[in-house]
Amino acid sequence: MNDLLDKALATIDDHNREKQIQEAVTIAMGELGIIPLHHQINTWATRKGVIYTPRIDEYTLAFQFRPQ
Fold first, then answer.
1. How far is 45 from 54, CA to CA, in rounded Å?
2. How far apart are CA 48 and CA 25, in angstroms?
3. N or C end: fewer C-beta atoms under 10 angstroms in the chain?
4. At what angle do helices 14-31 and 2-10 cross, to 10 degrees?
């Protein structure tokens, strides 16, 4: 699993990197125990007429707000 993750980090091609990460996750889920210790929950609010799509990295950037 570690070797696949190392290869994925060094891979520029998105398609190949995704396949390598999926293989690593399959190995990890089959062989390792996972205990979730933290669940992050973020809340964004806007006024009527404004739409915001949150980012995965949790940055809130002004240009991502748009009129409805």
1. 10
2. 41
3. C
4. 160
Secondary structure class of 39 (helix, strand, coil): coil
Alpha carbons 60 and 65: distance in angstroms, whole number: 9
Q: How far apart are CA 40 and CA 54, in angstroms?
A: 14
Give the DSSP letter string of 15-33.
HHHHHHHHHHHHHHHHHS-
Alpha-carbon distance 65 to 50, whole Å? 7
pLDDT tens-digit series, residues 24-62: 989 888 887 778 898 888 888 889 999 998 888 888 888
HSE-CB for 43 with a 13 A CA cutoff = 1
